[in-house]
What does this fold into?
Amino acid sequence: MKKYDKLVKNAVGRMVPTIINGEEHIPFQGVGKYIPEGRKFAPRISSCANPIS
It folds into this structure.
């Protein structure tokens, strides 16, 4: 069995695993590139990439 099943290259150029400890993770995409979706409890997840106007 391999140590990592699937590796992808992130924005910095490093090879990182997509599954860590059995959970799916999103590799670093760059500053302001990833915009989270969904809710934690009541408010939407805020991000500096999409400021509230």
Observations:
- DSSP finds no helices and four strands in the chain.
- The mean pLDDT is 80.
- Strands lie at 7-9, 15-17, 19-20, 23-24.
